[in-house]
């Protein structure tokens, strides 16, 4: 029998002896008061009378996240190490902050907030671009025991108002403008004022970071508006500083609203104690980031959970350097930016979403930019490329794995990891540094990657695959991915002021037995987890369940296809047929919406071979800039499905529900035009059968 890998042993211990495992991890942090124990389990009774299992991490403990992320390193003599490198191609700026400088900024800003009436337990909403001040704000809020709610900068006033009403912030911290890619600066004044106008709850203060690119003018004092830099200057002149205020383990550190591919946003609460312990382990164990000398570049946004955890908190818990990037994978100025950053800042660990790599592949099909830098030996520092946010198709994983093997550090790996706002840190992945669990840096090589799989379960996440009745399915079979209670410490235990919705949204489906992740997929015989799609992205073809993700994978295995979104189109005979929207990988994208016969046939062959004849496509439309996405890179299949269903009924103009989180609303119009062109070219009866079905 082959020897078991350390990741498997660690995992088993975390599940079989959760108290012992997590107590040891808690000891690695500074507590203002040590917890009485690692975990306490109880039963919660809701107003409706429903009862369900509940758990609480590190009861009795008191902790300050900011102290652990900043003060601790300065006190340990590491104040001179670099904490933050800000790299902003959109403004042509770069700045560096050591841990000592960061402490100074944060303790002063925390004092300012206190003077402005914010104290322990209050919520402060952050609506900021990717600038250092945004990180100072998060850490300053946490420093005084308040709770931040970061809303992605650039969200519409309506979605901002929704989050204001839900979180009732004492203050809003914002900037005069955001800069999206190579577009003109986007003024925040109007957006914030409109949101406050629309919200029934009016935040008393708005603290504004003035940027030179576009100022907030005028700052209306009577409306509670304040100039951030002026407040800080005045506090500094008076020598004001705020000490770190500890909070109870179960107190909220932040609220994050989940991305809206479905319904109204949910306020996920992150608890201070569990977050600190879990994240401090994950950054070392999974990401192999241990401290000074390690440089993490997470190309995401502080508005998303990936940004909260791996731009801000985790690298700082470790005492490492984090790169804060204000730019885009392409267009700022081109598809070489990521690799320029790796070279220039000697990045050891990178994290991004596959959608960013696809964008780069579209602009730099042969990876010339990567190869050019790599060929000069400039990318040797890079040890790993972590991917999350959506499914990574094997082709993109394989392509980057080859590039990493050829040009980066020895054994460098592409690591797909699966998680959510709810989980706070990866639920699955492959530990780059399994020995970190024992405080060691050197250890065994990571488990081998399997492209298409998001790795194995991370400590504390008891992942299972069940059928619709909640019964576990055999290894290798598709099903609903759920988790047993308790979840690992970084994960939520409730929703912000909405216990009922927590139960309804996550526990009710399986009668309180499992927590529903909303994702579908499988676990193979070796324990590797594959996430194929959201459960609602499953399509039913002649009573066979197919994941749109799996079909997309088959479609994108065609070399001429850069990207695909597959949705179900109703069919009188089979219930549904898969229908593909594709973007070609050629530089000059063919114009017609109807692909040429050769391409369609070749794709069909791939789908038949990889999925089965029964999953053969009902149709395919090609187009550039046609696949709608949320700002966090998730394909909005529902929007395409609705457009398609309307078109099948001859109703091309009918409105569809577009979530406020959409990245570019114009894409929906492109999709609409392409669909209309397709139906007109193919004859309106092409999906006649659909019509009768969809009217049922
Ligand atoms: P969010 O809470 O906005 O971060 O979205 C979480 C969802 O993103 C998950 O429930 C999955 O549907 C999807 N997701 C995240 N990471 C992955 C991954 N590595 N593979 C497949 N899907 C992913």
TrEMBL record:
Domain Acetyl-coenzyme A synthetase N-terminal: 8-69
Residues that span the membrane, as ranges: 124-155
SUPFAM superfamilies in the record: Acetyl-CoA synthetase-like
A GO term for molecular function: propionate-CoA ligase activity
Keywords: Membrane, Transmembrane, Transmembrane helix
Entry-linked InterPro entries: ACAS_N, AMP-bd_C, AMP-bd_C_sf, AMP-binding_CS, AMP-dep_synth/lig_dom, ANL_N_sf
Domain AMP-binding enzyme C-terminal residues, every copy: 551-634
PROSITE patterns: AMP_BINDING (PS00455)
UniProt domain AMP-dependent synthetase/ligase: residue ranges: 76-484
Keyword Transmembrane included in the entry's annotation: yes
Domain of life of the native organism: Eukaryota
Family of this protein: Belongs to the ATP-dependent AMP-binding enzyme family.
PANTHER family xref list: ACYL-COA SYNTHETASE, ACYL-COA SYNTHETASE SHORT-CHAIN FAMILY MEMBER 3, MITOCHONDRIAL
Name listed for the protein in its UniProt record: Acetyl-CoA synthetase-like protein
């Amino acid at each position: 029998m082959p020897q078991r890998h350390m990741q498997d042993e660690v995992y088993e211990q975390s599940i079989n002896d959760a108290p012992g495992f997590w107590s040891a991890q808690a000891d690695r942090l500074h507590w203002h008061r040590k917890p009485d124990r690692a975990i306490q389990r109880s039963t919660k009774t809701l107003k409706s009378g429903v009862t369900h299992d509940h758990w609480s991490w590190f009861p009795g403990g008191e902790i300050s996240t900011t102290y652990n992320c900043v003060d601790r390193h300065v006190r340990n003599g590491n104040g001179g190490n670099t904490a933050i490198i800000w790299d902003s191609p959109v403004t042509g700026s770069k700045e560096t902050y050591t841990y000592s400088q960061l402490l100074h900024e944060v303790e002063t800003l925390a004092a300012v907030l206190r003077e402005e009436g914010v104290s322990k337990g209050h919520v402060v909403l952050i609506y900021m671009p990717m600038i250092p001040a945004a990180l100072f704000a998060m850490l300053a809020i946490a420093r005084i025991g308040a709770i931040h709610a970061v809303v992605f900068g650039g969200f519409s006033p309506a979605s901002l108002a929704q989050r204001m009403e839900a979180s009732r912030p004492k203050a809003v911290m914002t900037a005069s403008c955001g800069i999206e890619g190579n577009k003109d600066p986007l003024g925040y004044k109007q957006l914030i004022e409109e949101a406050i106008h629309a919200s029934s709850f009016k935040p008393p203060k708005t603290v504004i970071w003035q940027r030179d690119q576009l100022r907030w003018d005028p700052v209306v004092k009577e409306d509670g508006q304040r100039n951030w830099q002026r407040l800080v200057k005045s506090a500094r002149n008076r020598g004001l500083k705020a000490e770190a205020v500890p909070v109870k383990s179960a107190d909220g550190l932040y609220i994050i609203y989940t991305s809206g591919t479905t319904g109204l946003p949910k306020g996920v609460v992150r608890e201070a104690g569990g977050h600190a312990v879990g994240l401090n382990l994950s950054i070392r164990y999974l990401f192999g980031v241990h401290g000074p000398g390690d440089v993490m570049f997470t190309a995401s946004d502080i508005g998303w959970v990936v940004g909260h955890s791996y731009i801000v908190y985790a690298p700082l818990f470790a005492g490492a350097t984090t790169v804060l990037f204000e730019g885009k994978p392409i267009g700022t100025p081109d598809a070489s930016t990521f690799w320029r950053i790796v070279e220039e800042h000697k990045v050891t660990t990178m994290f991004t979403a596959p959608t960013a790599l696809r964008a780069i592949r579209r602009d730099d099909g042969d990876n010339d930019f990567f190869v050019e830098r790599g060929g000069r030996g400039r990318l040797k520092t890079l040890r790993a490329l972590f991917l999350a946010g959506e499914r990574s198709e094997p082709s993109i994983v394989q392509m980057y794995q080859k590039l990493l093997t050829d040009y980066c550090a020895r054994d460098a790996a592409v690591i797909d990891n699966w998680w959510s706002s709810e989980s706070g840190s990866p639920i699955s992945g492959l530990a780059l540094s399994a020995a970190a669990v024992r405080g060691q840096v050197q250890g065994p090589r990571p488990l081998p990657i399997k492209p298409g799989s998001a790795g194995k379960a991370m400590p504390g996440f008891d992942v299972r695959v069940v059928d619709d009745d909640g019964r576990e399915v055999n290894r290798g079979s598709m099903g609903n991915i759920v988790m047993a209670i308790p979840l690992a410490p970084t994960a939520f235990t409730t929703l912000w002021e909405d216990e009922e919705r927590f139960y309804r949204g996550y526990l009710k489906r399986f009668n309180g037995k499992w927590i529903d992740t909303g994702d579908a997929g499988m676990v193979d015989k070796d324990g590797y987890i594959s996430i194929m799609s959201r459960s609602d992205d499953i399509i039913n073809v002649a009573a066979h369940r197919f994941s749109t993700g799996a079909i997309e994978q088959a479609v994108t295995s065609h070399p001429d296809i850069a990207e695909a979104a597959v949705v179900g189109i109703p069919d009188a005979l089979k219930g549904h047929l898969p229908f593909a929207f594709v973007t070609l990988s050629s530089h000059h994208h063919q114009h017609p919406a109807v692909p040429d016969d050769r391409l369609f046939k070749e794709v069909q062959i791939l789908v038949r071979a990889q999925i089965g004849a029964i999953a053969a496509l009902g149709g395919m439309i090609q187009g550039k800039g046609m696949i709608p996405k949320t700002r966090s890179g998730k394909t909005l299949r529902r929007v395409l499905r609705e457009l398609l269903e309307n078109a099948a009924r001859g109703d091309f103009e009918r409105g569809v529900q577009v979530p406020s989180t959409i990245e570019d609303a114009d894409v929906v119009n492109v999709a609409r035009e392409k669909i209309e062109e397709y139906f007109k070219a193919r004859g309106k009866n092409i999906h006649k059968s659909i019509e009768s079905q969809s009217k049922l």
